[in-house]
Each structure stands twice: as C-alpha cells, then as structure tokens.
Amino acid sequence: MIICMAGLPDTCQADSAKQKYMAADDCFKKLRNSSTEQQKVSSWLNCIRRYETIYQVHPENSWAPAGMYKAAELYLQLFKRSNTRTHKSRAIDLLARIRNKYPKSAYSGRAKILLKSIAPAQRQIKHIRSKKEETRNDARIDRFNRNQASLDLEKLIQTAEEKEKKKAPKAPYTQALAKPEKQNPRGDTRVTDLRVWSNPEYTRIVINASNERNYSHRLLKRDPTINKPFQRLYIDIEKTRLGKDVAEHIPINDNLLNQARAGQYLPHTVRVVVDIKSFENYKIFSLKDPFRIIIDVWGKGSNGSPPPEQSITQKDTDKRPVITSRITTDNLKSSDIARQLALGVRKIITDPGHGGPDPGAPGYIKGVWEKDIVLKLALNLAQKLRTRLHCTVELTRSTDKKLTLEERTAIANTQRADLFISLHCNAAKNKRLKGFETYILNLATDDQSITVAARENATSKKNISDLEYILSDLMKHAKIEESTRLANDVHKSMIQGMKTKYSDIVDHGVKQAPFYVLLGARMPSILIETSFISNKQECQRLLTQSYRNTVCHAITDGIEKYINATNPKQL
Ligand SMILES: [Zn+2]
After folding, report:
1. What is the ipTM of this complex?
2. pLDDT, tens digit (0-9, with 9 covering 90-100), for 499-557
3. How far is the CA of 535 from the centre of ligand 1 (A)?
4. Given this model, what pLDDT does residue 255 score?
5. Per-residue pLDDT tens for 45-73?
6. CATH 3.40.630.40 domain residues, the chain
C-alpha cells in the first residue's frame, strides 16, 4: 500500500491522484458494462464521487480537472436517465469551475464547448422558474392586499418605496442605511436573526431568514480615502426586510473582523456587512429548514497556507456581485494533513445530537427520546476519553438544551478541536432494523444514507439532493481522508467491542452523507449512529448503563487506535 500525504514530494501526490483517477475509471468501466448497475442512481454517484475526490484531495494536481470533467460528463449521462435537475446543475457547476480554476488546463476548452451545448437550456429553465416565483409571490401579495382594510395606505407605501428604489444611490452601505419599518405590511420575508461565533483565527456568522431567498455577495477593498479602513464583505438578501428584533450592529473586534452590521439597504433588500481586518479565506453557503446563510471567515495561517490576500482582493473587487443562492464561491487552499499529524490530537469535541425542543427520534418504548440517550452517551464518552487518552474533551451541550447544527460546528472550530464526534441514535419505520453505522461528510451514495441525513438535518430528502450541489465546494477543507480513517478505526472497534459482550450486533459499515452538523468542520469529524432506538431490543439496551458503557468503551478504543496511528508518541 502506498501512503501519500500533503507535504510529501509531488511525485507521490501525482501517483496518488493518478491512482485515484484509474480507480474511478475502473468503477465507470464496470458501470458501463452492466445495464443493471446503470439503473441505479447510487452506482452513478459512486463513480462520480471517485472522480470528484481527486479534485477535493489534490486540487493542485493536473489530474484534478480531468476528474472534474469526467464527473461532469457522468452527471450529464445520469441526467438523461434520471431527469433530475440537480444532476444537470452539478455538471454545469463542475464545468464552470474547471473554466474558473484551471484556465490553462486542456479541460478548460473542452468544458467551454460542453457548457455551450447545455447552458442555453439551463438559462431558459432559470428564467421560467424566476417568472413563476414572481407570479406566485405577486398573487400572494395581491390576495393579502385585498383582505386589508387599509388598502390605500398600502398603495401609498408601495409608491413611496418605488420612488425610493429609483433614486437609491450605489453609494457605500452606511449612506444608504435606512431605518427598518416596524410593521410588516405585506408579509415579506424577514431576516430574523444574526449570530456570531469567533476566535482569533475563525469567525462564523449565521443570518436567519423566514423564507428561502436569493442572495449575492461581494468583497470590497479597503478605502482609507472615504473613511473605510477595513475590507468589507457584504451579502445582499433579495426580497427581504430586516426583522425589528435583529441587532443592526454586532461588535466582534477580534483579529479577523471588526464588526458585522445589518440594514435595510433597499426597500426589499437587506444588506449584511462584515468589516474584515484580515483574512485567509472565506466561504458562504446556505442551509434550509429554516433558511439560513452561513459565512465562515478564516484567518491567515489558520490552515497552514501562505496569505494570498492581495490577489484575492484584486480579483474579487474586479468582479460583479456573485449570485450565490445555488453556487458557492471560495478562494480556499487545500487542507494540510501534515499539520494535523505534527500537532497530534489534544482536544476532542463530543456532540450529543438534538436537545431542548428537538427530541430527536422517538424510542420504541414510549417516553424514550434520542436526545436523552445521546447526552448520557456523550457524557460517558467524554469521561473515558479524558481518563484513558488524557485528551481535553468538551461537549457541545452537557444539559438538555437547544443547539443549532451550525452552532455545533462553530463550537468545534472556535475551540480548535482536533476531532469532532457527533453521537446519534438511528431510527426507521421498519422496527426490525437494528445495528451500528458511522458516517463521514460526503455525497450520499445510497438512499438509506439520504434518509438518515434528511432526518438528522431535519429537512427533506429533496433538500439533501440540493445540498449535494454545493457540497463539493465545501468538501475541499473537510479532512476527508483523515475522517475516513477515524470512521474506519472507530467503527471497527465499536463492532468488535459490542460483539464481545452482546449477540445480534449488526454492522452497517462506514457510510457517507451530507450532514449539516459536519459542514465546515476543519478537523476529522464523524457522526455515529449508535443502534436503532426504534428497535425494541436496541431501545431496551440503550436504556441500560452497561450497554452504553460498552458502546463508549469501544468508541474510545477506536479513537485510541486512530491517535496511535496519527502520532504514536503521544500515548
Ligand atoms: Zn439524531
């Protein structure tokens, strides 16, 4: 077996990237030769994922655009069979990114030709969709207006707003800042919350809105001549008003950011501005149920890369605002596994899923809930990791309290954790299903994984497919290889450990799916489904301390194995 890591000679990386490409080709050959396999979407996605991994793990390698191009071709072939819009969008996204990131590659020209052949149809779809959206929205507003006694007042407000919109200057944000109206006369979408987590190297800002909306962002360079000493990143959210309880000004003042501000930039556009002192990179993406926009900003040296600030500033200020409702943009460098190896594992975050008003899955036995079981498991696991592995261990929650999924990752990142372990219990309609499975963040390759991710993300299966569209961008900094190794070590130990004390232990293996809670995590991260709470026997077992103890003991064995292989001298 050849082991290649970041930091080793280029030839080793090239071999590894090439091997990955060849393995992906083998996967596709098998698919091409089997009409049965071609019927399954998961088989296509499995091969596509293999091609995409090259780009995610070796973005600087010349095999990366080759893999992306092949993945795009496969998505288009899959689209012809599935007629699923996401598959076509993924192909377009990949081709556009080849053009953008690898302009000198031979695949850039090929991507351009392929894009031309498919893009006009795509534009048409977009146009029709936005028109429909408009019509539906207008109809809703009309209906609402007809029911209002104060129709004349409505008209007055509307006329005033139209006038204001016409004369609204394209001036710096602060000059255009308008006071938000206290009423919500037409039931518009509201920005309901603005939250910030930060440490000197990392800041996560989350903007909540009451409905899904298009948004765009732009980075403006600092301009001391007009009293703008900081670079500003702004996000404009369309057809939205600022909720009256939202703080208009949040001081942050760490090494990265000075402050975040929210204001009604135009009558129907909320603008959130972040004053940036310095940064290495940033990433913007959105999640659904409820709709929220997440901005991750990383400081210089936070991932071991040299600061490319100058070129980013120049490049981005030259651009028009980028529509990011469907496509995320970024300027991130590849992850650095060598840094992880050098530092070892000192701090672990254990994350008991759900909590507070979100009880998680209901147990087979009435009154038993996932949130209570996983809290007991996480407390037990934390204790074992501290005493046996001498690591610092923090919990995302140690009581029965509400915690959003994006907050959990923010905690892990701001705490500079080396590992992130999210604990859950599985559930299924089929009460006979039982067993263990361990997940890493990636595209889901089977329907069952999509179902699990939809349940844990509290969203629909369709939204999981939409999420896959932005995932490859977010994956570049996810420690895929390290997470896979951690998942394999933990899962293997868990199954072995459970089998020594219990019969009927079912092994569902290590799987992958796009879990919100793992998105943006910068350390090896896994999500463990520790038994099916919906199964009678496993629900009964989860209620006993001895079973939970065995589960946590076995997980600790796995983490110990992982740490030993990562940094043998630490233990
Ligand atoms: Zn759960």
Report:
1. 0.99
2. 999 999 999 999 999 899 998 898 999 999 999 999 999 999 999 999 999 999 999 99
3. 15
4. 74
5. 889 988 888 887 888 888 888 889 889 98
6. 337-566
Say how far apart CA 450 and CA 272 lie, in whole Å.
33
Beta partners for 196? 205
Phi first, then psi: give them for residue 39, nearest 5 degrees: -75, -20
Q: Where are the alpha helices (DSSP H) in 443-504?
A: 447-456, 461-474, 480-501
Write out the residue limits of the CATH 1.25.40.10 domain(s) in the chain. 10-122
CA of 439 to the centre of ligand 1 (A): 12
How far is the centre of ligand 1, averaged over its atoms, from the C-alpha of 41 (Å)?
26
Task: Provide CATH 2.60.40.3500 ranges for the chain.
Answer: 173-323
Query: Where does 173-323 sit in CATH, by number?
Result: 2.60.40.3500
Inter-residue long-range contacts of 448-455, CB under 8 Å, 24+ positions, other chains counted: 449/511, 449/512, 449/513, 450/513, 452/426, 452/513, 452/529, 453/513, 453/514, 453/515, 455/361, 455/427
Q: Tell me which CATH code domain 337-566 carries.
A: 3.40.630.40
Q: Which fold would CATH assign to domain 10-122?
A: 1.25.40
What is the token pair recorded at 223?
A: 């301009």
Distance CA 489, CA 562 (A): 6
Strands 249-251 and 240-242: unpaired
Indicate the angle between helix axes 41-57 and 461-474, nearest 10 degrees: 20
Among the listed residues 470, 466, 413, the one whose alpha carbon sits nearest the alpha carbon of residue 86 = 466
Residues in the chain: 571
Cα–Cα distance for residue pair 98/119, rounded to 1 Å: 15
Distance (Å) from CA 47 to ligand 1 centroid = 29
